[in-house]
Specification:
Blueprint (H helix, E strand, L loop, with lengths): L19 E3 L5 E3 L1 E2 L10 H11 L11 H20 L7 E6 L2 H11 L8 E5 L8 H6 L1 E5 L9 H11 L3 E7 L11 H10 L3 E5 L22 E5 L10 E6 H4 L12 E5 L2 E4 L13 H17 L1 H20 L4 E3 L14 E6 L4 H12 L1 E2 L1 E3 L4 H7 L4 H12 L9 E5 L6 H15 L7 E3 L6 E3 L6 H4 L12
Parallel strand pairs: 3-15, 5-6, 5-7, 7-8, 8-9
Antiparallel strand pairs: 1-2, 4-10, 9-10, 11-12, 13-14, 14-17, 16-17, 18-19
The structure holds pyridoxal-5'-phosphate.
Length: 477
Amino acid sequence: MDSSHPNNLYRNLFVGTEQKIPLLDGSERTYINFDNAASTPSLLPVQKAVDDFLVFYSSVHRGTGFKSQLSTHAYEQAREIVLRFLGADPKTHTCIFGKNTTEAINKLARRFPFTPQRNIVITSGMEHHSNDLPWRLAAETIHVGLLPDGRLDTDDFEAKLKQYGSRTALVTISGASNVTGYINDIHHLAETAHAVGAQICVDCAQLAPHRKVDMRPLDDPAHLDYVSISAHKMYAPFGAGALVGRRDIFEQGDPDLRGGGTVEIVTLDDVVWAEPPERDEAGSPNTVGVVALAAAICQLESVGMDAVAAHEAELTRHALEALHKIPEVMIFGSTDPARAEERLGVIPFGLTNVTHFLAASVLGYEYGIGVRSGCFCAHPYILHLLQVGEDEAVKVRNRMLAGDRSEMPGLIRASFGLYNTIEEVDFFIDALKEISKGNYRGKYVQDRASGEYLPEGWTPEFEKYFAIGNSRCYESI
Ligand SMILES: Cc1ncc(COP(=O)(O)O)c(C=O)c1O
């Protein structure tokens, strides 16, 4: 990879970008990761911060030794960094650490103070399952409709808010879609929700790594009440996530998980809960993951979120322009290269003549390109984008329940990160041109249960590249 290309400026900040992996023909090539919407590689400064911190790593909060105190200091400093990054005021908002966005949203759904008078949640048909299923259990959940291209139908949003009015407790919406990369106008939605006395939660799993998120002060009508993030999508894959939310809400009620760290006083028949955020962080936290998240934030801030967005928009524009020139490619969502900066670098597409499962397998096995295929944890949204009607949806469902996913509808998704390059996009486009002509070497066999295509007679030798236990250092004992 030519790192002198201005487009490759950020590449050296990441771990493993030049890693070679095996291909079906026996050769090796540098892996291309276009699956950043799922998980991102680690930033080098994050790896370095983890290494530096591990020397001091110890218990947090109640230890009296130097290492415990340093660990507690780092853990609490990370909280301040997350609050600052999201534009949240520590006086009104608290940062609760957990393992990811899914956990954050489940927590909010369990802790939100619904009342018999305010018990409606308004969400949308474009949500990741993690911002849909937790709400269905907690309250009556209403889904706002979508436009044919997958954008939120804002007229329907306003109509639903009008219909449910003061019964609406919460609006919960993705900051950006993990399928189409659409960015919702969250501050406008917030203002509309607040006008009926509802609060708003924004699932920022996708938005936060790629755009500035600003929760704004509570007295701003367009403020955000709750935001969730996942570190593994922000170049810090060490298992942490955060829910930043209104302190007054978490000062009320019992925690959803009870145990060590959540209490002020316990007697045999009474408990006084701790103040937020401790009340909602049961058990020993993932201190290393939290330090990694904060280190990633510091690096993203130093690059600047505008620069991040500009770089990814350039990749997206370039990819869209090239994809339009392949006749077999059908792009979903926003297809206009000139509007690349208005959305994230997440491109869902299909091929007219090769299924999403097969195309993704060939990209992986023959070109060393990691994409994702299928429904991306957003089944209703994919069915909407593919315009799968009610009858067909029932047939698909029945086939899947009978253990056959071979004809499961779905798309291929290419999603870009800060370290990806124009050269990588070009290589990907060349690969797609070949695949769309039916040119691939392997003989692929479909596993009907998963839908996945596997090359006959070949499995990668994972242990040649990494094996647990091989990193032991006997020499140093
Ligand atoms: C928009 C969105 N929300 C929520 C999630 C769930 O994130 P996690 O798996 O980190 O909990 C994802 C993951 O892909 C996502 O893209």
